[in-house]
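hey can u run this one w/ phosphoenolpyruvate bound, need the structure tokens asap thx
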Amino acid sequence: MRPLIVIANWKLNGNLKSNQDWVQVVCRGMEKGMPAGRKYVVCPPFPYLAQCADLIQNCSAAFLSLGAQDVSRHETGAFTGEVSAAMLKEFACAYVIVGHSERRQMHGESDGLIAEKALQALDHGVTPVICVGETADERNSGREVEIVRSQVAKLVSVLQDRLADCLIAYEPVWAIGTGKVASAQVAQDMHRVIRLQLAEFDEDVASHVGILYGGSVKPDNAVELFAMPDIDGGLIGGASLDPQEFLAICQA
Ligand code: PEP
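ok here u go:
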């Protein structure tokens, strides 16, 4: 059985005070009891990892883990502004998001670079959450399956059976931050496409890999999405900034 995983991606949001309030509200909510067999992760901006690691450590509900929003493909060296997987590990990061569409679009990240970042994370015991997904134009021209399959093909060719230790997040770009959530069936259909593609490589890998949905998930649509057989949780942007909304999604 694959566990259900819900990940909060704060993006470029947060400050010392609001982070503290957020973790306190979420921890108190989780201490009241959460559905069994689930995992929850919060991904703050880099400067707040140490603060959030401390806050989470003081939370008696051992449900919440820490993640980062990006990682360098390099181990160490002259790469100004980059943060390595080893550094993330030192700050208790168990997960890292790679290949988010905002990084693909605004920073020109390629499938090859994203796969290299995932390898770095794996080499340091950090689970990569690798984002894939088509744009509105690609879906409107009927190319969504071709696009997502080509993104997944690169991951398979570089990561091979190490994919079993990764998470994949299907995030249709047209649904991110737009309020236009994919219907549960549309999301399930693409998750199935991804799982079948992984099975073409290795059935064991396909059955192990958690495939999360991301794109305008809210408490009221999470129940239906998470009930789908190939949807193993969610990557939550906007709605994760409000701790009560995030909690409600975690309980969905
Ligand atoms: C995201 O940024 O990964 C995301 C899914 O954002 P939102 O939930 O705001 O659509």
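The radius of gyration is 17 Å. anyway lmk if its weird
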